[in-house]
Amino acid sequence: MKPYAIKAIVLTLFIMTSLFLANWLFQAQLAPIAFLGVAYLGSLFVLVHYFTHHDKSMSENKKIRRLMIGSMIRLFFVLIFLVISLFNKPQFPLHFVIAFGLTFIFYLFFDILEMRANLRPDSEKLNKHTNA
Q: Would you say the C-alpha torsion 81, 84, 89, 95 has a positive or negative sign?
């Protein structure tokens, strides 16, 4: 859990710095809620990862169910945040939606890479009994 949280914090800081630089260099006029959205996504992904991976003694079926529930909860809370933040703005903030969507995709890539590393940890070892 700890390495995942540290990597997620580093990713959050990197994305916030990138948003700040893009806002400063291109005068994109990002709403301050964009930075809150990045922090929200980072904390949401860490909490869902903790929910799905904190119990190491679960059966495989329970792990899969918990992973699916965690994915649904994550998507539900992301949509809730996006809808609430869009309803609070008088005009449609396209820059915020693009930044939030790209951040969500970056976190999904990060989460998938972390899951992939844990799916088959022995896949890197060569099997002496194969022809390859």
A: positive
Instruction: Please say whether the dihedral angle defined by the alpha carbons of residues 54, 58, 63 and 66, taken in this order, is positive or negative.
Output: negative
For 58, the token pair is 């679960």
In 3D, which of 99, 81, 90 has the Cα closest to residue 22? 99
What's the one-letter identity of residue 96? F
**pTM of this structure:** 0.78
d(CA 93, CA 69): 31
Q: Residues for the chain: how many in total? A: 132
Of the candidates 106, 88, 85, the residue with the CA atom closest to the CA atom of residue 97? 85
Spell out the alpha helix ranges (H) of 1-132.
Answer: 2-26, 33-53, 60-87, 94-119
The answer for residues whose C-beta is within 8 angstroms of residue 35's C-beta and 6 or more apart is 16, 19, 20
pLDDT in tens, 36-70: 999 999 999 999 989 888 887 888 788 888 889 99
Rounded alpha-carbon distances, angstroms, from residue 77 to 23, 122, 130 = 26, 34, 46
